[in-house]
C-alpha cells in the first residue's frame, strides 16, 4: 500500500509540473533500435531511433502530424521527396516538416548505412510555423569556425513545423577541455556523440559517452560536458523552444 501511494504521488508530481517522462541520462546508440520514447515539457511525443538499411532496402515515411530530424551516422543513404533528392554523407542531416512524405534508400552497397531519426510533436501548436519547409544540410557544406576550445559548425537556427525555434550545431572540443561551466536553461537539449570520449554532468550525476552515445537533458537541469579523451571529440547539440 505504501509503495502504491508513493507511485501515485510521483505520477501527480509529473502531471503537475510537466516533467518529461524521458529520463535525463545517457543512452547508447551503437545498435539499431529505439533509444528513447516519451514526452518532454514541451513535446507531447518524442522518439529517437537508430535505423540500419539492408541491401536493396528502402524505407518510406510520412511525417503526418510529426516532424522528423534525420542524421546520418555512416554510409551514403539517399533521401528523396517531391522537392528533395540527395545522397547523404556521414554527419549530414535533414529536417522533414509535418505532412511530408519521403523515402530513404540504401546507397553504396559496400557500406553500412545507419541513420538516427528524431520524431516529435509539440504540445503547443501555436508555436509551430505553418510556412516551414523541409531541408537538407550536407556535412561538407557546414563551415567550421575555430575557437580557443576547438570549433563549431552551425547547422540551422530557425522556426519549424513544431517549434518557435529549432537549433542545431556541431561542437568540436579539444582534449581535456569543458565546453562551458555547468549551467541550466528552459529548453530540453539532446547531445549526440559523433566521435571521442566525454563526461556529462546532468543534475547531480556524471555520465560517460562515446561515439553513438546520446545525452538527454531535461528542462532546467544543471548540465555541462567535458572531453575526457586524449583527442578532440565532436557532437551534435540539438534544442528547441
Describe this structure in words.
The chain is mainly beta and 241 residues long. 7% of the residues lie in helices and 49% in strands. The protein has one helix and 20 strands. The strands form four sheets. The chain has a seven-stranded antiparallel sheet, with no helix packed on it. Strand 12 (144-147) and strand 13 (150-158) form a beta hairpin. Residues 1-20 have low confidence and may be disordered.
Summarize the structure in short.
Helix content is 7%, strand content 49%.
What's the shape?
globular
Helix/sheet category: mainly beta
Count of strand segments:
20
What spatial order of strands do you see in the largest sheet? 1-18-15-20-14-13-12
The major sheet is characterized as:
7 strands, antiparallel
The low-confidence parts are 1-20
SSE succession: HEEEEEEEEEEEEEEEEEEEE
Strand percentage: over 45%
Query: In percent, how helical is the residue content?
Result: under 10%
| Overall pLDDT level | 90
Number of helices: 1
Q: Give the distance, in angstroms, between the N- and C-terminal Cα atoms.
A: 40 Å
Annotation keywords:
disordered N terminus, mainly beta, about 240 residues, globular, 6-stranded antiparallel beta sheet, 1 helix
SSE blueprint and pairings:
Elements: H1 2-17, E1 25-28, E2 33-38, E3 43-53, E4 58-62, E5 67-74, E6 78-80, E7 85-87, E8 93-96, E9 101-105, E10 113-122, E11 135-137, E12 144-147, E13 150-158, E14 166-173, E15 189-195, E16 198-202, E17 205-209, E18 213-217, E19 223-227, E20 233-240
Antiparallel strand pairs: 1-18, 2-3, 3-10, 4-9, 5-8, 5-10, 6-7, 6-9, 8-11, 12-13, 13-14, 14-20, 15-18, 15-20, 16-17, 16-19
Amino acid at each position: 500500500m505504501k509503495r502504491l501511494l508513493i507511485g501515485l504521488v510521483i505520477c501527480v508530481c509529473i502531471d503537475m509540473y510537466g516533467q518529461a517522462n524521458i529520463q535525463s541520462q545517457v543512452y547508447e546508440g551503437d545498435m539499431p533500435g529505439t533509444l528513447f520514447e516519451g514526452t518532454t515539457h514541451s513535446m507531447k511525443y518524442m522518439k529517437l531511433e537508430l535505423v540500419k538499411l539492408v541491401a536493396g532496402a528502402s524505407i518510406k515515411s510520412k511525417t503526418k502530424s510529426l516532424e522528423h530530424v534525420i542524421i546520418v551516422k555512416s554510409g551514403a543513404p539517399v533521401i528523396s521527396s517531391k522537392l528533395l533528392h540527395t545522397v547523404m554523407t556521414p554527419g549530414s542531416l535533414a529536417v522533414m516538416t509535418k505532412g511530408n512524405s519521403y523515402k530513404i534508400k540504401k546507397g553504396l552497397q559496400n557500406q553500412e548505412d545507419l541513420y538516427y531519426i528524431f520524431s516529435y510533436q509539440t504540445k503547443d501548436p501555436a508555436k509551430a510555423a505553418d510556412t516551414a519547409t523541409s531541408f537538407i544540410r550536407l556535412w561538407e557544406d557546414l563551415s567550421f569556425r575555430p575557437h580557443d576550445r576547438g570549433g563549431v559548425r552551425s547547422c540551422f537556427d530557425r522556426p519549424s513545423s513544431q517549434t518557435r525555434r529549432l537549433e542545431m550545431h556541431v561542437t568540436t572540443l579539444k582534449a581535456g577541455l569543458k565546453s562551458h561551466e555547468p549551467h541550466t536553461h528552459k529548453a530540453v537539449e539532446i547531445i549526440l556523440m559523433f566521435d571521442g570520449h566525454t563526461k556529462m554532468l546532468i543534475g547531480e550525476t556524471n555520465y560517460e559517452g562515446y561515439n553513438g552515445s546520446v545525452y538527454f537533458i531535461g528542462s532546467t537541469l544543471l548540465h555541462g560536458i567535458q572531453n575526457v579523451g586524449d583527442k578532440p571529440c565532436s557532437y551534435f547539440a540539438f534544442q528547441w523552444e
